[in-house]
């Protein structure tokens, strides 16, 4: 069943045309990985889906309802939650308070403070510590846990492994895999192609605001993705004599 | 002993300043709005109560039950209709908006009430002049003690609200990062309006106490704003206990100054404020340049 539909979305930052005519559908339980170089438009696309960025054109539909003009906090209440790039925790609030703030939308479900602490056992001893005192990995776990507290139907994850030690990345990905096993629908932006290809069911490569490659993660080869990632195919096509 | 008395009176006065300043501090802490109409809104609340008490014949304490919710509703509307739009236009626009609002409030009050000084002193009976005699030199006015107690109670209630309730947590989260707060389901517009409602209601309460203890006229607001502003700067932003400490420092400075020379109370308060401000700037500068030795080494 289609949960999320993005139709011909254009998004701009002033003169910069960050996302160009992007369309895709996401089914319940799918894990979509978005890869692409810096500046390809991945973060802007995620923020547009979450409602933090208003598209210049196009529509975003959630369960068939047009949510293009719905503000972000109401999208959270419907079940769309973004884990923003750079974690963006509330540094002066404790870990537990960071989790509790995410109950503001009023969406109840299986995810409670206890359930999050069970899924991320490393946070249990830290629950009364201020978020700014945590390590990068602990912060990322808190940020994902905070998003889970909204009991999302679609979880948008932006660069969850950026700036983390390899051990911390392993930890984050272990928890991601358990989320995927539970049937959570995920859109994942990831720089690390290997990681993205192992967890995702579908993979999309963005280049200069467009989708340049799309397919089942299991069927795409690293070479195909790498070519699309750097725009090699297009460059070679343009460069070769007709 | 006379000095001790001045210090005691200064501490009690500090409670009033803390009450006056807490709304200013809250609005700056949450929305980054410096509300230049803060003093005028306090005076507006006091005039509102004055009308209910003198023309409506209500007891001033019963009238508070009308004034505070009305002023809170006014704060909510102010945020939703004016300040929210101003904020979208940048950080300086709310400064102009609230400056203009202050002028409008002052002149509307002047239109209706003229330039006379007015006081609620005669509405509160013996509370206005009764006191407890502690020693032959020190006595504590019952009204001053009441104001101090209310100020502490309001600060404690605000503190509990901010730390213990879901709305308080949402407010702190929004103060830190409104964009992210919205991404986890907080309605930032509602949180902002709530902060403005609390700030304006508490300002009105302070205005009422001002009118009980001394007097007000339509142009009293800006002077009170300066005291509130000095309290916030001395106490440090974003800390409610700091606000109480700032109020007490200002109150004690004014009273001790008055004891040195009867024309000095305001001057002494301003001097302490400037000294604290200068110290903060200098210490901040030293800190950012890598310590005192690094700074001295370069001289």
User: Which term fits the overall shape of chain A?
Assistant: globular
The description of the largest β-sheet of chain B is: 2 strands, antiparallel
Main sheet characteristics of chain A: 6 strands, mixed
Side-by-side strand order of the widest sheet of chain B: 1-2
Q: What kind of assembly state do the chains in view correspond to?
A: heterodimer
How many strand segments of chain B? 2
Q: In the CATH scheme, what's the topology name of chain B?
A: ABC transporter involved in vitamin B12 uptake, BtuC
> Reading side by side through the largest sheet of chain A, how are the strands ordered?
6-7-8-3-9-10
Brief rundown of the structure:
The complex is a heterodimer of chains A (242) and B (299). Chain A has 242 residues and is of the alpha/beta class.
Helix and strand layout, with pairings?
The complex is a heterodimer of chains A (242) and B (299).
Chain A: E1 2-13, E2 16-27, E3 31-36, H1 42-50, E4 57-62, E5 65-66, H2 72-78, E6 80-83, H3 95-101, H4 113-119, H5 136-148, E7 154-158, H6 166-181, E8 185-189, H7 193-199, E9 202-207, E10 210-216, H8 222-230, H9 232-239
Parallel strand pairs in A: 3-8, 3-9, 6-7, 7-8
Antiparallel strand pairs in A: 1-2, 1-4, 4-5, 9-10
Chain B: H1 2-31, H2 38-54, H3 60-88, H4 93-113, E1 131-133, E2 139-141, H5 142-164, H6 166-176, H7 178-183, H8 188-213, H9 221-235, H10 240-260, H11 265-288, H12 292-298
Antiparallel strand pairs in B: 1-2
Task: Give a written overview of the molecule.
- The complex is a heterodimer of chains A (about 240) and B (about 300).
- Chain A has about 240 residues and is of the alpha/beta class.
- In chain A, about 35% of the residues lie in helices and about 25% in strands.
- Chain A has 9 helices and 10 strands.
- In chain A, the strands form 2 sheets. In chain A, strands 6-7-8-3-9-10 form a 6-stranded mixed sheet, sandwiched between helices.
- Chain A is globular and about 50 Å long.
- By secondary structure, chain B is mainly α.
- Chain B has one domain: Orthogonal Bundle (ABC transporter involved in vitamin B12 uptake, BtuC), CATH 1.10.3470.
- In chain B, strands 1-2 form a two-stranded antiparallel sheet.
- In chain B, strand 1 and strand 2 form a beta hairpin.
- In chain B, helix 1 packs antiparallel against helix 8 and helix 3 packs across helix 8.
- The model of chain B has no long low-confidence stretch (mean pLDDT about 95).
- At the A-B interface, helix 2 and helix 3 of A face helix 6 and helix 7 of B.
């Amino acid at each position: 069943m289609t949960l999320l539909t993005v139709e011909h979305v254009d998004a701009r930052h002033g003169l910069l045309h960050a996302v160009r005519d992007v369309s895709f559908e996401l089914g319940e339980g799918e894990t979509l990985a978005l890869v692409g170089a810096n500046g390809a438009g991945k973060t802007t696309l995620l923020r547009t889906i979450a409602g933090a960025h208003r598209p210049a054109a196009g529509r975003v539909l959630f369960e068939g309802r047009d949510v293009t003009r719905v503000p972000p906090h109401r999208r959270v209440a419907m079940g769309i939650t973004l884990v923003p790039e750079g974690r963006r925790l509330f540094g002066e609030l404790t870990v537990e308070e960071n989790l509790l703030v995410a109950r503001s939308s009023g969406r109840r479900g299986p995810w409670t403070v206890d359930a999050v602490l069970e899924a991320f056992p490393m946070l249990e001893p830290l629950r009364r510590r201020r978020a700014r005192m945590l390590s990068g990995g602990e912060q990322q776990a808190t940020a994902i846990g905070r998003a889970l507290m909204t009991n999302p139907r679609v979880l948008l994850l932006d660069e969850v492994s950026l700036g983390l030690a390899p051990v911390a990345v392993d930890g984050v990905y272990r928890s991601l895999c358990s989320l995927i096993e539970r049937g959570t629908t995920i859109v994942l932006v990831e720089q690390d192609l290997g990681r993205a290809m192992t967890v995702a069911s579908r993979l999309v490569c963005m280049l200069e605001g467009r989708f340049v490659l799309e397919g089942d993660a299991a069927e795409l080869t690293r070479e195909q993705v790498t070519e699309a990632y750097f725009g090699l195919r297009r460059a070679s096509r343009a460069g070769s004599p007709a | 002993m006379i000095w001790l008395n001045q210090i005691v009176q200064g501490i009690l006065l500090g409670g009033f300043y803390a009450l006056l300043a807490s709304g200013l501090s809250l609005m700056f802490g949450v929305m980054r709005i410096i509300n230049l109409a803060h003093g005028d809104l306090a005076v507006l609340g006091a005039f509102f109560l004055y009308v209910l008490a003198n023309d409506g014949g209500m007891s001033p304490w019963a009238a508070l039950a009308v004034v505070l919710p009305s002023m809170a509703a006014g704060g909510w509307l102010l945020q939703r209709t004016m300040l929210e739009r101003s904020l979208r236009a940048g950080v300086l626009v709310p400064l102009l908006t609230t400056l203009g609002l202050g002028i409008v409030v002052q002149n509307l009050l002047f239109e209706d009430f003229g330039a006379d000084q007015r006081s609620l002193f005669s509405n509160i009976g013996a509370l206005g002049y009764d006191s407890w005699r502690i020693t032959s030199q020190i006595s504590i006015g019952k009204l001053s003690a009441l104001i101090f107690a209310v100020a502490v109670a309001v600060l404690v209630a605000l503190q509990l609200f901010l730390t213990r309730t879901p709305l308080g947590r949402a407010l702190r989260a929004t103060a830190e990062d409104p964009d992210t707060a919205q991404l986890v389901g907080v309605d930032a517009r509602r949180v902002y309006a709530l902060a403005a409602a609390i700030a304006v209601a508490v300002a009105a309460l302070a205005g009422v106490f001002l009118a009980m203890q001394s007097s007000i006229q339509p142009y009293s607001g800006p002077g009170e704003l300066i005291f509130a502003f000095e309290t916030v700067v001395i106490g440090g932003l974003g800390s409610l206990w700091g606000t109480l400490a700032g109020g007490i420092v200002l109150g004690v400075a004014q009273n001790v100054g008055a004891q040195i020379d009867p024309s000095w109370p305001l001057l002494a308060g301003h001097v302490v404020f400037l000294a604290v401000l200068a110290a903060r700037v200098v210490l901040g500068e030293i800190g950012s340049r890598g310590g005192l030795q690094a700074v001295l080494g370069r001289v």
